[in-house]
Amino acid sequence: MRPRLLSDDQILDGARGCFLQHGPAISTAHIAAELGLSQATLFKRFGTKDELMLKALLPRGDEPLFALLDAGPDERPVAEQLEALGTTCLDMLFRVIPCMMTLRAASERAAHNAMRDPSSGPLRVQSALLGWIVRAQARGMLRPVAPRILMSALLGALRNRTFTTHLTGAARDEAEERLFVRDLVQLLLDGAGPLPAPRPAPPPSAPEASALETE
């Protein structure tokens, strides 16, 4: 029987699933069997198990979030754009965070290097979102508040939700996630301060005052 012909991306997707399900100690023999390949083919394509693990678990540079951040902002209402960015970011975080946790269990150094990678790691997300916010402020779409604080507030809330879902073992509810992102964006755009006090009514004009006196 001829072996299945798989692209590198297909092998990496399959290997990622194996590492996430069984942990970093899974053997390459198990991974190869799951993919319908020989170990020799696996090593010929990726060299070593460590190289396979890194390429399978590290975030890739073609994430949809990066395309949205680099291209924007556009002419749509800023709230609509931020909601799209938030939901796309959540999708990425739900995929990437388990990979980074698995990689950390295998190699603290590899996980640290991945976290500091400016081309695809968290630093890439932070710099791209910061650039988006600065451009939106320059166009008058956002108030000139400290852009790094706004970036940290948005990303921090999204990361916290992702970590909490993973740690509690709760199932994802994408409809509820969209409501969460919508409310988060509204909170950030409105601010958390008190509502402005009602303005006092203006004093009556002279004719109105005269009419009141005659009554």
Task: Describe the structure concisely for a colleague.
With 215 residues, the chain is mainly α. It is built from 11 helices and no strands.
What is the domain total for the residues?
2
Number of DSSP strand runs: 0
CATH architecture of the largest domain: Orthogonal Bundle
Summarize the main sheet.
none
What structural class is derived from the secondary structure elements?
A: mainly alpha
First CA to last CA: what distance? Answer: 105 Å
Describe the structure.
By secondary structure, the chain is mostly helical. The protein is built from 11 helices and no strands.
Question: Topology of this structure?
Answer:
Blueprint: H1 8-22, H2 28-35, H3 39-46, H4 49-57, H5 64-71, H6 78-106, H7 108-115, H8 122-138, H9 147-168, H10 174-190, H11 206-214
Question: What keywords describe this structure?
Answer:
Tetracycline Repressor, domain 2, Arc Repressor Mutant, subunit A, mainly alpha, single chain, 215 residues, 2 domains, elongated
